[in-house]
Design a protein that fits this description.
- By secondary structure, the protein is α+β, with helices and mostly antiparallel strands.
- The chain is built from eleven helices and 17 strands.
- A hairpin with a 3-residue loop joins strand 12 and strand 13.
- Helix 1 packs across helix 2, helix 3 crosses helix 4 and helix 6 crosses helix 7.
- The protein is globular, with a radius of gyration of 20 Å.
- The chain starts with a strand and ends with a strand.
- The model has no long low-confidence stretch (mean pLDDT 96).
- It binds acetoacetyl-coenzyme A.
Length: 389
C-alpha cells in the first residue's frame, strides 16, 4: 500500500456569470476596487435548475470517466449550502452517477473548511484497505445580501476529487498543522438564506488562524517554507490569497514572491467564492496553469472555514500527473459561459431563492437554463426532482 492522495480532480461552474465591471458601474464603484482591491473579475451565477447536487454531479462525472465504480465505497459531500436538514445531498448524486449501492454517503459541514475534512478523512479511509476509493465532492453557492460589501465576492462551483492509495496526481502528506477556535465571523442561522458576516473581522481571523496552523505544522516537523514550490490558499476572493501569502512569507522570514501563488488564482478570479470548493478550485488552477513540470514538487495548502477551523498541509505532485489533468475541459467550461446584464443577474438572484425554496408543497417546474447533463427539473410535494439529460 502506498501513500494516499488525489487520483483525479475536476470542477464545474454554472453557465452564467456577472462581470464585476457591470456591478461596479451600477453601484458607482471604481472597477479597480473589484479587480485589484478584491482581486475578482466575474461572479458565477447558478440558474434555478442548478444547485449543489447538479454542480457536484457534473464535476464528479468528469473524474469518474473510465473508472471502475465498484471500487468506490464512500462518497463524502462537503458543503455549507445544504438543501435538506436531514438527507445528504450526496445521496442524490450517488443515484445520478450510478454509484454502487455498496457505498456509504454522508455530508460534511464546517463552513469553507469541510472540503479539507473530507479529503483528510478519505485519505485515512483508503489506507485501511488497498484498492478502495473515495469520491470527495465539495460544492457551494456563495450568496450574500444584495448591496452589501460582500456582494462582489459571491460565486458558485463544485470540485470533485477521487482519493486512492495509488494517487496519480498528488500524495497528501500525513503532517497537518491545525487551528480551531469558536468565533462568530461568518455564519448562517437555519432561518436565513444568506449568511451574516463581520467582513473585516473574518479577514483578520483568517490570517490569525494561518499563523496558528503554520506554527503547529512547524512544531510537528513539517517542511520549511522554502521547501514548498507553490502555495494554494482558501480564496474567498483572490486578494485574500495574496494577503495570506504575504503574511506567511513574513512569518517565515522570506520575501513575498507572487510567482509562488499566481497560477492558483486564475480560475477563482473568474468564478468567485465557492466556499468548500474554493481551495480545490485554486489547486486545479495551480496544476492546470503552471507551465513548469511540477513532478516531485511540494505544494503548501491552507484551508480556512469561518467559525473557525484552519489547516495547513502539504501535497507532493506525482511524476506523470499532467496526463491526468483536464486542462482543455476546464478552459472550455470557463470560456463558454454567458455574461449577464445587471438586471438579468438580479432577476436570477431572486428567482434562485424564491424558485428553489418553495414551502407550500406545490409543484414547481424549473425553467431549463442549465446546459450540463444534470438538472433540478422540479420541486414537487416538498421533494426535489433531478434528471440526467
Ligand atoms: N482601487 C484599488 N483598490 C481599492 C479601490 C480602488 N479604487 N477602492 C478600494 N480598494 C481596496 C481597499 O483599499 C481594500 O484593500 P485592503 O484590503 O488592502 O485595505 C480593498 O479594496 C477592499 O475594500 P474595503 O476595505 O473598502 O472593503 P469592503 O467594504 O469592500 O469589504 C470584505 C471587503 C470585508 C472582504 C467584504 O467583501 C466581505 O465582507 N466579504 C465576505 C467575507 C469574506 O470573504 N471574508 C474573508 C475571510 S472569511 C473566509 O475566508 C470564509 C469565507 O469564504 C467567507
Amino acid at each position: 500500500m502506498g501513500q494516499p492522495g488525489i487520483d483525479a480532480l475536476s470542477f464545474y461552474v454554472p453557465q452564467h456569470y456577472l462581470p464585476l465591471s457591470v456591478l461596479a458601474a451600477e453601484q458607482g464603484i471604481e472597477p479597480a476596487k473589484f479587480s485589484h482591491g478584491i482581486g475578482q473579475d466575474k461572479l458565477a451565477m447558478p440558474g434555478p435548475d442548478e444547485d449543489i447536487v447538479t454542480l457536484g454531479a457534473e464535476a464528479a462525472r468528469k473524474v469518474l470517466k473510465g473508472e471502475d465504480l465498484s471500487a468506490i465505497d464512500t462518497l463524502l459531500f462537503a458543503t455549507e449550502s445544504g438543501i435538506d436538514q436531514s438527507k445528504a445531498a450526496g445521496v442524490f448524486v450517488h443515484r445520478l452517477l450510478g454509484l454502487p449501492s455498496t457505498c456509504r454517503v454522508v455530508e460534511l459541514k464546517q463552513a469553507c473548511y469541510s472540503g479539507t475534512a473530507a479529503l483528510q478523512l478519505a485519505c485515512g479511509h483508503v489506507m485501511r484497505r488497498s484498492g478502495r476509493k473515495v469520491l470527495v465532492i465539495a460544492a457551494d453557492i456563495a450568496r450574500y445580501d444584495l448591496d452589501s460589501p460582500a456582494e462582489a465576492t459571491q460565486g458558485a462551483g463544485a470540485v470533485a476529487m477521487l482519493v486512492s492509495d495509488t494517487p496519480r496526481l498528488m500524495q497528501i502528506e500525513p503532517i497537518s498543522g491545525l487551528h480551531s477556535e469558536d468565533i462568530m465571523d461568518f455564519w448562517r442561522p437555519n432561518y436565513r438564506s444568506t449568511p451574516l458576516v463581520d467582513g473585516k473581522y473574518s479577514t483578520e481571523k483568517y490570517l490569525e488562524t494561518l499563523t496558528g496552523a503554520w506554527r503547529d505544522y512547524q512544531a510537528q516537523g513539517g517542511h520549511s517554507f522554502q521547501e514548498f514550490a507553490h502555495f494554494c490558499y482558501h480564496l474567498p476572493f483572490t486578494r485574500m490569497g495574496a494577503k495570506a501569502h504575504a503574511h506567511l512569507s513574513e512569518l517565515a522570514g522570506a520575501d513575498y514572491d507572487p510567482a509562488r501563488i499566481n497560477a492558483g488564482l486564475i480560475y477563482n478570479r473568474a468564478v468567485g467564492n465557492c466556499y468548500a470548493a474554493a481551495l480545490y478550485l485554486s489547486l486545479a488552477s495551480m496544476l492546470d496553469n503552471t507551465a513548469e513540470d511540477l513532478s516531485g514538487q511540494t505544494l503548501g495548502l491552507f484551508s480556512y472555514g469561518s467559525g473557525a477551523v484552519a489547516e495547513f498541509f502539504a501535497a507532493k505532485v506525482q511524476p506523470g500527473y499532467e496526463a491526468y489533468l483536464h486542462r482543455a475541459h476546464h478552459a472550455g467550461l470557463l470560456a463558454n459561459r454567458t455574461a449577464l446584464s445587471f438586471d438579468a443577474y438580479r432577476t436570477m438572484w431572486h428567482r434562485m431563492w424564491q424558485g428553489t425554496d418553495p414551502q407550500d408543497g406545490g409543484h414547481y417546474q424549473m425553467p431549463q437554463i442549465a446546459k450540463g447533463q444534470f438538472r433540478l427539473t422540479a420541486i414537487d410535494g416538498h421533494k426535489r426532482c433531478y434528471a440526467a439529460g
